[in-house]
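JOB MANIFEST
job_type = single_chain_structure
chain_count = 1
residues = 256
[input]
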Amino acid sequence: MTNHLSTNARLWRVLRYGLRSPLLLWHALIDLPIVLVLIALGGGGWLSHTAVRWYARSLLWIFGMRLHREGTPLAGGTLFVANHVSWIDIMVLHSQHMMGFIAKSEIRSWPLIGWVVAQAETIFLQRGNGDSLGLVMAEMAQRLRAGRAVAAFPEGGTRDGHTLGPFHARIFTAAVDATAPVQPVALCYGVRCSAQAIVAFAPREHFVGNLLRLLGEPVRPVRVCFLPPILPANHSGRRGMAQLAREQIAQAMAQA
């Protein structure tokens, strides 16, 4: 019986690859150039933002991820902070709202995704470089003051999907300096967050391996929950904001 189920699972995975691979190629070779032209023509305005959101939503649909949003993203200069599961988190958030991400500099070299995120107002951070972090914080604060949204993953990196890591308080410095609101966002893959570990990187799994594995996964819901904003003036500095943001995200995931 177990072997029969395993055979059926492999067959369905092969069928999903057969259906989705041509769609992914089309999205990369045909849709992406069109989106890049729209981004250039939009000059960072509504046309650029709409193109990025459409591209992200379409990519998620190809991967079998069906989005369900709760709450509303704040407009203007807002720092969005979310739990970090995999590279696809960036696409999930971009599908809902345009925001410049803080991302590790290695992402620049990732095929397809690296090019897209570079065009989507991403701020790249060289991990382990203190000077780079200072420049990133200054750029974040400047964008927030200018009324532009930025986003970060306060855990500092992806995990195995089983636990929510501690939130590093330093990333909230930009919001404090710019007196900008912070909006936590809970990302939940699968029914009741049951697929967090599936979406997360497996041990020693690189970006391409994770992408190919997720391409063959079954259709599943993705819940994106925009939670009540946190205002710097109402909390005791960046540490208090980091703690509250983590608590809100953990509670939203537990209630999924």
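[summary]
The chain has one domain: 65-254.
The chain has a mean pLDDT of 89.
exit_status = 0
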